[in-house]
Write a structure and sequence with these properties.
This protein is mainly α and about 110 residues long. Helices cover about 45% and strands about 0% of the residues. It has one domain: Non-ribosomal Peptide Synthetase Peptidyl Carrier Protein, Chain A (Orthogonal Bundle).
């Protein structure tokens, strides 16, 4: 799809990406987004299996693909994701927002 006709749903910043990742992980694993601490381990604490992780990241890729032309996640990197924070860091890195400042989930600076 040409960039000039590409669908955008608002600005894509670090806070938006963090919220989207948490929302998609919560949905995929049947959790409340407010209950997903950054240190929560996907497989141990959230009882995620490899298919659940893949489904969650497919949803993230689909959502961000609508906002960022060419956004894709490398399946090999997904195997390295252990925690919610790892997931957020990976997606921020792919978006080019790693290290970007923005409000965290508690309203402070990230």
């Amino acid at each position: 799809m040409p960039a000039e006709t590409h669908s955008h749903r608002g600005d894509l910043d670090a806070a938006t990406v963090r919220a989207l990742v948490i929302e998609q992980l919560a949905e995929a694993f049947g959790r409340d987004p407010d209950d997903l601490a950054p240190t929560a381990r996907l497989r141990d604490d959230l009882d995620a299996d490899d298919f659940g992780v893949l489904d969650a990241f497919t949803a993230i890729e689909t959502e961000l693909g609508e906002r960022t032309v060419g956004f894709t996640l490398d399946d090999d990197e997904l195997a390295e994701i252990l925690t919610v924070a790892d997931a957020i860091e990976l997606v921020l890195g792919v978006c080019g927002l790693l290290g970007a400042r923005g409000p965290d989930r508690d309203g402070g600076d990230a």
